Amino acid sequence: MTRIVVTGGNGFIGSHLVERLARDGHEIVAYDTAPPPPDLPLHILPGVRHVKGDVTSESALASVITPAVDVVYHLSALVGVDRYLRQPLDVIDVNVLGTRNVLRLALDSGARVVVASTSEVYGKNPQVPWSEDSDRVLGVTSADRWTYSTSKALAEHMAFALTREHGLRATVVRFFNVYGPRQRPAYVVSRSVQRVLSGQAPEVYDTGRQTRCFTYIDDAIEGTVRAAAHPDAIGEAFNIGSHQETTVGEVIGLVREAAGFAGDNDVLDTGAAFGTAYQDIERRIPDTAKARTVLGWQCEVPLREGIARTVEWARRNPWWWRGPLD
Ligand SMILES: NC(=O)c1ccc[n+]([C@@H]2O[C@H](COP(=O)([O-])OP(=O)(O)OC[C@H]3O[C@@H](n4cnc5c(N)ncnc54)[C@H](O)[C@@H]3O)[C@@H](O)[C@H]2O)c1
After folding, report:
1. Domain coverage including residue 63
2. Nearest to 180 by CA among 12, 24, 319
3. Does residue 210 register a pLDDT over 70?
4. Which of 31, 122, 148, 179 is catalytic?
5. Which of 81, 131, 294, 300 would be 287's cystine partner, CB 3.0–4.6 Å?
């Protein structure tokens, strides 16, 4: 039995991680500003304690990241393009101040730490697939679009510097387009599922020819848990993503198929809707050789099956798709 803290433990990835770790018999604190998801009241999970708190408050965080803790999974963040555009300063604060607090406390308490990062750190580097050593290629600092990428990269820099200089045992996982049950309906899969179940047409941004590598939540959790356990993962970053490149148009087609939706798609002109602050990335593809070699991990759930599972879960949880768009 291991004592674990999951920051952002009530979010999409965090809640699935907490479920998995509880099933494995660990003792877990889910530390989050938000309450647990409605379909997962935490009291039903043995060994899980919910603590409401903000990662930007070092004193509050210090009450949970104590010398008794073995592993910290740091997942708290403000996620989603809508948030980078609406709350850029909060995005930076949570990623930079929050991560600094988590890392300092993990160092003091001797805990191992996994930092959730993102494919967005590679920015718009046109040379795909991206390996963990690929360059970061970003836009201008006047575009809020890049606050998330830049602040996550700073979080990574802090993790690597503390590992090298002070012996912190940190690992970075860079997630690529994770999808599945409970995800906020603000991303292509979750938003399309929400729309079709509530009788609206799915919305395609521009041509729908942008590609992504969609990663089912269970695969992302497996990669994350392995990253926390493997001794060779300390001081390293790993791409956690599917290698199956899919256009956004195709993935919307799979959602339509799984949900039995027959009408036309709506098309959104992002230039007109969001202005120049919005910059899409045409292709986002991970090279996953390192995760395969070091962690023995790769995605196992095919996209069609992951989408079918997500639609099935959503049908059983109308609170999710009947709720307002965040
Ligand atoms: N979902 C993806 O495809 C994806 C892709 C790349 C990276 N990530 C990263 O994975 C992590 C989890 O993302 P997610 O998709 O589960 O998002 P999410 O929004 O569902 O979860 C994030 C959680 O962090 C919490 N949080 C936000 N600010 C906080 C604060 N100041 N203090 C404490 N808790 C706070 C939120 O309440 C939320 O529950 C994030 O770090 C995100 O950047 C996710």
Report:
1. 3-176+217-242+285-300
2. 12
3. yes
4. 148
5. 131
